[in-house]
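TASK: fixed-backbone design
INPUT:
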C-alpha cells in the first residue's frame, strides 16, 4: 500500500522538468569557446549536476513524506518548526544588530558628539542657573536673619547700657536720700538746740 499522495508524484515530475530546464539553461549560459573540451569533462559535470539534483529531490521526498495517518513525520515536523523558530530568532537578532550598529554609528558621528556636548553644556548651565535662582530666597532669608540678629545684639547693648544707667541713678538717689536725711537730722538738731535755748531764756 502506497502512502505517497498523487500531488507529491506530480510535484516530483514538475521538479524533474524544472531541473531538466535548469540543465538546459546552464548549458546555454556557457559560452561556446568555454564549453567542455571533451565528452569526458561534460560527462563529469552532468554527473555532478545529477548528484545535486538527486540530493535535492531526496531531501524534498523526505520533507514531503507522510505517514499512514496523513501527517508529516513528527521528527521532520519538529525539525521544520525548530528551524522556523531559529530563523525567526535570527531575523530578530539581525534586526537588533542593525539597530545597535546604527546607534553606534550615530554615537560615533562627530555631529552627534558635538550636539551632545552642546546639550551637556546647556544642561550644566541650566543647572547652575537653577541653583543660583533657588539660592536667592535662601540668601535673602539668611540676610534678614543676620540683620535681625544684629538688631537684637544692638538692642541688648542698649538695654545693658540702660540698666547700667538705672543702677547709677539708683545709687545716686540713695546717696541723695542719705545726704538729705543727714542734713535733715542736723537741721532738726539745730532746731531742738535753739528751742532749748529759748526755753532757758524764758526761764
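OUTPUT:
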Amino acid at each position: 500500500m502506497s502512502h505517497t499522495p498523487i500531488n507529491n508524484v506530480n510535484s516530483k515530475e514538475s521538479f524533474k522538468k524544472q531541473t531538466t530546464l535548469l540543465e538546459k539553461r546552464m548549458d546555454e549560459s556557457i559560452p561556446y569557446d568555454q564549453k567542455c573540451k571533451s565528452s569526458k569533462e561534460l560527462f563529469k559535470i552532468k554527473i555532478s549536476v545529477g548528484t545535486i539534483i538527486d540530493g535535492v529531490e531526496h531531501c524534498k521526498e523526505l520533507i514531503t513524506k507522510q505517514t499512514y495517518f496523513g501527517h508529516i513525520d513528527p521528527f521532520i515536523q519538529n525539525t521544520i518548526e525548530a528551524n522556523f523558530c531559529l530563523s525567526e530568532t535570527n531575523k530578530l537578532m539581525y534586526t537588533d544588530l542593525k539597530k545597535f550598529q546604527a546607534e553606534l554609528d550615530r554615537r560615533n558621528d562627530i555631529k552627534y558628539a558635538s550636539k551632545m556636548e552642546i546639550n551637556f553644556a546647556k544642561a550644566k548651565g541650566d543647572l547652575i542657573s537653577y541653583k543660583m535662582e533657588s539660592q536667592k530666597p535662601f540668601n535673602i532669608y539668611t540676610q534678614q536673619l543676620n540683620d535681625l540678629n544684629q538688631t537684637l545684639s544692638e538692642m541688648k547693648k542698649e538695654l545693658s547700657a540702660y540698666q547700667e544707667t538705672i543702677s547709677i541713678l539708683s545709687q545716686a538717689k540713695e546717696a541723695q536720700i542719705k545726704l538729705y536725711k543727714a542734713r535733715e537730722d542736723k537741721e532738726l538738731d539745730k532746731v531742738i538746740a535753739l528751742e532749748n535755748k529759748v526755753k532757758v531764756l524764758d526761764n
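COMMENT: Residues 1-9, 29-39, 66-70 have pLDDT under 50 and may be disordered.
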